[in-house]
UniProtKB/TrEMBL annotation:
Keyword terms, alphabetized: Coiled coil
Signal peptide positions (record): none
Entries under InterPro entries matching the protein: DUF3086 (IPR021437)
Domain of life assignment: Bacteria
Biased composition range(s): Polar residues: 18-33, 51-80
Region ranges (Disordered): 1-80
Coiled-coil positions: 100-177
Lineage summary: Bacteria, Bacillati, Cyanobacteriota, Cyanophyceae, Nostocales
Name this polypeptide is given: DUF3086 domain-containing protein
């Protein structure tokens, strides 16, 4: 604390008191003067003289009183001036110190901001250099990758062109061989027979319509009954099924009943070796043709899909198992392991059998060579078994040794839509 500032209120209070006293002296309320003024018109001249002397005395007293008051006011003002100057200087010093502190703080903030900006600029420059280096490396690696990819694509293109040329040559060779092989000849013969059958059907229908229009009543002529000699039917060899002969009516009815059951009432959860898939009329027609027209030994035109062929073969296997039980042994011939794998999966799916049913001494055996199939079938015949040989439509040639067995089913490719099965793998 400033000692001068602490002593300032006392002189100010004294000065205010003196001012009040001075105002009281300058404007006194003298009752004697008022009374004299009121009684002036009434008194005599003597009284006027005494009144004048009284006024002069009063004025002298007032003057004597005012002079010391003015002198005291001057002294108090002289005392206040240094104190006021001291207060002003202290106020200016405090304001200057506050401005100085604020300025220093502002400068410190600006310096810290400048340092932070410099550090951030340095970091950004370092990041820019790193990113630029990474960009150059990426561009270099990308260029190398593009070059390598182009080289690989060119190599693959050349390899594909070579493969296409090979496949085209193979397709042409297969078409030429189809004209001379058994499959091609049998397919051509089947087409001709079907055309002749259609011709006969149409001719018979026309003949029947013409006969109905004639309305002839033939004369009744009694004929002598010819002597009919009873001919004993030739007994079939045991173990060789002959579905096309007339004496096997019971077997024929059973086969037709099973085909109708597969077509109209499929059992998707039936026992093993029973067909578990939907059987369409086209499939039933193919199976009936193989049983009754070809006698269980012949070629059928492919359905265009190996899965459809497997469905037809599964129906034949199921019917034979229903008729002959475990005596039937299925031998599948295909020229690649991939196609044999398709046959295995398809038979499992259609007949509800598993892996234990596949094997050399099991229900289904898979082969890649026709010689092995012939040897296995010969051993089965000697063991009083019924080998059913199924030949995939990818076989280009069929060994004649396979045609000697009682049951065989070959799928012949359609000459109009010859396709290369190598495209499937």
């Amino acid at each position: 604390m400033n000692p001068e500032a602490s002593q300032t209120p006392e002189p100010i209070d004294e000065w205010l008191t003196q001012e009040e006293q001075t105002n009281g002296v300058e404007h006194p309320t003298n009752p004697s003067v008022d009374s004299l003024a009121e009684t002036a018109p009434i008194g005599s001249s003597e009284e006027d003289a005494s009144f004048d002397s009284t006024i002069s005395n009063t004025a002298d007293e007032v003057n004597s009183t005012v002079e010391p008051t003015e002198s005291s006011n001057g002294e108090s003002l002289q005392q206040l001036e240094p104190e006021t100057a001291t207060l002003g200087s202290d106020t200016l010093k405090s304001e200057d110190s506050l401005l100085y502190v604020a300025t220093e703080q502002r400068v410190a903030n600006l310096q810290s901001t400048e340092a932070a900006l410099k550090e951030e600029i340095a970091n950004l420059q370092a990041s820019y250099k790193i990113l630029q280096a990474q960009l150059s490396e990426t561009q270099t690696s990308l260029g190398q990758l593009v070059k390598e990819s182009l080289v690989q694509l060119e190599q693959r293109k050349q390899a594909l062109q070579i493969s296409i040329e090979q496949l085209e040559r193979r397709q042409e060779r297969i078409r030429n061989e189809m004209r001379t092989t058994f499959a091609g000849a049998s397919q051509d013969l089947a087409i001709r027979v079907q055309g002749f059958k259609d011709y006969l059907t149409g001719s018979l229908q026309d003949l029947a319509a013409a006969a109905e229009q004639l309305q002839l009543t033939p004369a009744v002529v009694e004929r002598e009954k010819p002597n009919i000699k009873e001919v004993k039917p030739a007994e079939p060899q045991p173990g060789i099924p002959q579905f096309a002969q007339q004496q096997f009516q019971d077997t024929t009815k059973q086969i037709r009943r099973l085909i109708d059951q597969y077509r109209n009432k499929p059992d998707y959860y039936g026992p093993a070796w029973q067909l578990r898939r939907t059987f369409e009329p086209v499939h039933a027609e193919r199976v009936s043709n193989w049983f009754f027209s070809q006698g269980g030994r012949g070629a059928l035109r492919t359905m265009g899909s190996r899965l459809q062929n497997i469905l037809i073969a599964s129906a034949a296997i199921s019917i034979l198992h229903k008729l002959y039980g475990d005596r039937v042994r299925t031998l599948v011939l295909a020229n690649t392991p991939e196609r044999l794998g398709e046959w295995r999966r398809g038979l499992q799916d259609c007949l509800g059998i598993g892996r234990p049913d596949f094997g050399p001494d099991r229900g289904v055996v898979l082969f890649e060579a026709s010689e092995a199939v012939a040897q296995k079938a010969d051993r089965l015949v000697k063991a009083n078994q019924l080998p059913l040989i199924i030949i995939d439509d990818s076989e280009e040639q069929i060994s004649l040794s396979l045609l000697q067995f009682p049951l065989w089913l070959a799928f012949a490719p359609d000459p109009k839509t010859v396709r290369n099965y190598d495209d499937d793998f």
